[in-house]
Write the structure tokens for this entry.
Amino acid sequence: MIKQYEQTSRYNHKIHITTRSNNIELITFGCVHLGALETDLELLQIYVDYIKAKPNRYMISIGDLIENAIPIHIPEAMWEQYLTPRQQVDEIVKILLPIKDRILGLIRGNHEKRTAKRSTFDPTEIIADKLGVPYMGWAAYIFLVVNGIEYKTFFTHGMKGGLPETALRAAFYGGRVTDTDFFAFAHKHSFAMREFTKKVLVNGTSFVERTTGIRTASFIRDPEYAAEKLYDMQYLGASIIIIGSNFKHWVADNSGEFKFRDIIELD
């Protein structure tokens, strides 16, 4: 259960979780794009049911929960959504409501920013308010404490630029996430993962520590613009980060929709 949440500064959050399980699972949603014609609602519901099925499963959204196509930004995209932005907000709230107590927080994506930068009204903040969960803006450092074990993490939606693994490398060596245990982006609609190592000095002794960079995929299946630009076909789904509760360890599962559907059937 989420025992305590605290926002310590604009970008810093601290969340305490207690569990009787050997680990918790953090399902990292990115690029759901609810309201788009190609959004895989069946797969989204499978993930929601998966989270709901066991008490040690939690969720964080790192942007683009809704499609939010508006006239002032790529107006033709408005005809590729089956719900208005207002309806999209209401629908995603209805879908996530059964797991609202498992949501660590919601982070804004570039699709929600379309409205936020022109009006100061952020759809992500409205969704978070309706669900009663933390709104974390564009990026968040989360100090996640699981049964007293602290994990330093960073989550943001991400922006354009390079291949997914290249973006992870740039983020790590750029310094913003170097001190984290793991960090996660979305935006590119494709899975990627990379392990980094760094040397740290503690009381005169040098240690090697690792940081895991994760790029999660999406829930939108081959939209028209992707076909037009000959983008690679991608797996769908969310990254699952398995986090130890008895001793400090973590591993990311980016197997996506195909293996994930098998897990659901066997669970």
